[in-house]
Amino acid sequence: MSKEWPLWEVFIRSQHGLAHKHVGSLHAPDAEMAINNARDVYTRRNEGVSIWVVRASDIVASSPFDKEALFEPSNSKVYRHPTFFPIPEEVKNL
Amino acid sequence: MNQKFEYLLRQGDNALILAQQLCQWCGKGPALEEDMALSNIALDLLGQTRMWLAYAGELEGSGRDEDKLAFLRDAGQYRNCLLVEQPNGDYAQTLMRQFFFDTWHYFLIEGLTRSSDARIAEIAEKSLKEVTYHLRRSSDLVVRLGDGTGVSHAKMQAAADELWTYTGEMFIYDDIDVAMVEQGVAPAANTLREAFLRAVAEVFGEATLTMPSPDAYMQRGGKQGRHTERLGYILAEMQFLQRAYPGVEW
């Protein structure tokens, strides 16, 4: 099963969504069937969705040990954060 | 009016019987994802059934709603084509039955979106997205398995040869079908048949399968209520509860 039906990770952008979100995974023999199956398993075939499937083995994840080095925010350096600009109402989502 | 009622029953019964059969795969599919897909297709078809039978019941005007039409008619009053009542068999047989049905169904529904009957056109419009997906999926699987291993190829070819005799009935038009074509309600038989044969030939070519002769002898009778021995069993299981407790709210 695992050799013929490898694991795929599924990312979906919903109808009004701005970005693809990881929704889960599934097994499929190739990308095309992974897309078909993702439609059945994760979208119920809503219109206006975009599906990305990626073979799980192609994803490289950061190590939990790197957490601090990679993600410690520069909180003391306020000039690094764009907090001094008024944002117009229309671009709320940016 | 009576003819249109009959025509609607045919559409509804096709979808209903096939959905009922596909449901039997629930939890038994060759892979989880296939299981989900078959159940999804069954649900799509059941949704279509409800629209067809509800409209049929309204046209008839004698108080039979979709439930009464589905659960209180016996095999002789059922109008589905013989193809959909053929047994699930192995996965190859289920897929081949689905592929033949989807191919015909797609062209029919596509034609019905231009129906002179606004309500039929609307139901077809709603169904078209679903049947487009059904056809895409079953074509893909026929190619994969036909052009797969020696075993899968042999199974798909056997299924095709077995089921071929049930593919012609849809194109043999009787008085009801002809009346529907004349009223602009339904698409003509020859355009459907040509489209069907072209599509099957194309997929079979890619799947390295041999398409049986279009001129082979074709079984018929389902549309007129003359069914294979299979349908009685399907209905006995499907209708048991409503027969045992008629008129119950559920």
TrEMBL record, chain A:
It is an enzyme of class 1 (oxidoreductase). It holds the Pfam family PaaB. GO terms for molecular function: phenylacetyl-CoA 1,2-epoxidase activity. Keywords: Oxidoreductase. It comes from the Bacteria. The keyword Oxidoreductase applies. Its EC number is 1.14.13.149. NCBIfam families: PA_CoA_Oxy2. This is 1,2-phenylacetyl-CoA epoxidase subunit B. It comes from Massilia horti.
UniProtKB/TrEMBL annotation, chain B:
GO terms for biological process: phenylacetate catabolic process. InterPro entries: Aromatic_CoA_ox/epox, Ferritin-like, Ferritin-like_SF, PaaA_PaaC, PaaC. It holds the Pfam family PaaA_PaaC. PANTHER family: 1,2-PHENYLACETYL-COA EPOXIDASE, SUBUNIT C, PHENYLACETIC ACID DEGRADATION PROTEIN PAA. This is Phenylacetate-CoA oxygenase subunit PaaI. GO terms for cellular component: cytosol. NCBIfam families: PA_CoA_Oxy3. SUPFAM superfamilies: Ferritin-like (SSF47240). The gene is paaI.
